User: What shape does this take?
Amino acid sequence: MLERSTEAELGDLPALRRPAAGAAARYLGGTHWTYGRDQGVHGEHFAGHWRTDEGVVAVVYPMESRFGEAAELFDVHTAADIVVVVGYTYAHDGPELDAVDRARPGLAYSPSWAELAAHLGAPVPWWPSALRRPDHLTGWRPGDKPRPVEVVTYPSWEALYSLAEREPAGSSVRRACFTIGHRIRAGASEEALKRMDNLRSWAAKRDVHLPLVFPAVPDMTDQRLAEVATDDVVGVGLAALCARTDEAAVECLEQVSAWSGVEDLPYGGTFNLTRKDVTRAAAEWIDRLREVPPTALHRLQGADYDTVGTFVDPVTGSPVVAVKGKFSFRDIREITYIGRAPKRLPAGSVLKEVVLDDPVWVRTADGTVYPAPAMDAPGLAWGYSGSGPLTLAECVGRLLDDGGAHAVTYGDDGRGKEPGLGALFKKKHRRGTHITRRELERARTSA
Assistant: This one.
């Protein structure tokens, strides 16, 4: 009677929570799944299949950050009785595991790595996300020695290398693309090694049983390392890439932007202006724009919108895109100009006044108006207590000392070191307010 009761209780447990029978499981191979959105599965993935005493177990390794529920995968892996999804986040005993049994698809559970390994009859393979390259995954078999694998990354170092390899030897575009690509590749390799070392350290603790095996290591060799360039060469190469019109240039700029924002690009952060209800400084900027054929950077800037014109600011050389219907809560016919701030003003510039607007404008002694030097972040703002006015205060303080100073970046620690200007910009000034150099200097010394 007691034995039957125990069997009944075990039968109520999810499959991987039951004691493993001890028989060795058999690896059936793995499949790389690329999907269609209409199929309900929210991500590309690899699944290794084992035949166990509890049925076929599919261990799924996502290749995208967005991923669906484990139960949805039964429609993809029709032979699987149990699906286990290896998560990106960590649980108390290693990377999180989400499992579901076909017999009870509504009951999700989280087996331990020890429970999963017991049913597979061997340590479970684990790949950092950067080492989930399809040809390696599908070719792996239990017992294989770890293999060097070229990292898979987003942004894609491979797209940058592909363009670079078609460029003339020694050209700035070639070297810039190899340099950014190498940085992406090296960063992903270092992160993969760090995660593996972290799990090794975790598994070495006395109270942790983490039966993992690492089938791959990052391939640290890079034949293009000799073509990595200085930041100056990278800047020249990316400026040339921005001016091109080919699809490969657009794709590479997408990768560079995703990697480092505007840090590596020749221009600063973007801003938006409409023709309607603008300040005099903004109208002055719009009126000087010159229409030009679209470049790769124009196309990147307007990729998500209905573009009606492409321009250049002849003073800064930065691209400007005019788009229609950018803001869903406003008139769909409204024209918005998407511009880019300079990272710095010309050497020798002298700040004459600041105009509080969105964006903030600065006028120099020669009468030229510029968007204030800015990156995508931290932003410049005014009219409240917060980081925006403090960043603007630091920016203006720099321009008072050196009109050609670089825009404020997150690596700078000067916010809060201009208390007088900070107090000035925290005030709720009227939009379009002009503040002269003399007023700025007075405010700066008043703290």
